[in-house]
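G., the chain you wanted modeled:
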Amino acid sequence: MAETFNLQLLLAVVVVIATFILRPFFGANKVSHEPPSVPATIPVPFIGHVIGLFWQRTAYYTNLSLKWNFPIFSISMFGGKVHVVSSGELMHSLHKLPKSVSFWFMEAKFTTQLGGMSERSSASLTANLHPESRDSSLLIEGLKATQHAMSPQGGVEDMNRAAAKVTKERLDELLSKPESRRNVDLWAWVQHEITVVTTESVYGPANPYRDEKVEVGFWNFADDTIMLLMTSVLPNIIAAKALAGRQTVVEAMDRYFAAGSYKDGSSLVNARYSALKGHIDDEDLARFECVNGIAILANTVPTAFWTIYHVFSDPIVLEEVRRQVTAITTSEMSLEGDVRTIDIRRLKEAPILFSTIQEALRLRATGTGPRMVMEDISVGQEGYQLKKDSVVIIANKALHYDKAMWGETADTYVADRFCGRTPAHAFRGFGGGINLCPGRGFAMVEVAAMVAMLTARFDMVPATSGGWCEPGQDMSNMSLQIAPPRKKVMVDLVRRSDLDDASWRFVV
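Predicted structure as tokens:
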């Protein structure tokens, strides 16, 4: 999600970007109108902010933003500058400078490093991303192809149809196995279901993720990307699990492309293959696709989890979701009995579905949006000067919790918040500007369809005494835009007794 298909990649690992991967920026001098510098919460010379970031993870940026209340401020890391943006008013200015304050550069660097891609492929993906370049960029052209593939004209409705079909089949299977509905780890269940639904929609009948080893390998890789990025010494020991998982996925994707199975896949996988084939090494097509799994899965899963958690844990919200879903559900009697149909095209007539998803993205946001400053620039009405080779961090949670923008309920889950007008530049659920997530439409429909049929067919109750409890969020993986729960949420999924005889289907 939030810049999900656009490969947000390990956005919060700015300490890696600023101090270990790109350059240490020793001896940077303060310039006039530069954003104000703030001291580290842990007063240790040179590395205080580094310690704070590793101790508090991405919450460190939010905590500094709330403490100092500056629209933009700077923190020093080993003599270099990281500029943290915590004001929606500055976002419009940054959106006008996509090449000067570049997410694309970050994306290209991390894609190639995470995938273990060759120097040739890395050079191809990072070429022509500088502001002065007038030649076409392989990365940007590939993103344009992705945007078209994920549009109504490009084939996203076929992906919606595939996702709805698999969702319905998965819930049918769940219904037929009562033993699988008791004492369910909600996070593990959602992770597996979203993985199945998404990859079936993307890769088609030869979906490599049908092999359990590939699914397990991917999540071993995705859950340890931070260590993989930071490890240049003894990676086979320190990041062994992530490397082994990556290799499993890469080998499966290599077979998928070699067999031509992508031709029966979605418009998305075909567009990516066509855009990259011949420009990067053939083996790196599989490596790129492995990393792309982070884009299509790593943030969709927690978004779906938190949406389901908030809907089922609040009886009032659950009742309203069911009321609106019922309004777009048709019922007819056939030889098979009562058949209930949800038309995917009518999901928007139940605005509470999309609002609950967006509100989960807003309230549970933990990630950041890093950008590389590619040339000296001035941003905002105040004319803040940002120097080339510094880093910009967009503190999503600070923007999402800004009471001046969202009102006094900014730190509360309000299910219907997005049914009305909201401050556009203060919501970072899908990125912003030219870097808006091209897959946001598909991801929203995928999660909305799951929530619609899940609420229509099942009750969900805590499997332990004490009712629903706030599980907190696990901040250990700084690459995620929305962190998973810290504690397990165990539930029982109970078939709704008033719909025992009904069968269900989606139409698109």
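The two ends are 22 Å apart (CA to CA).

Shout if anything looks off.
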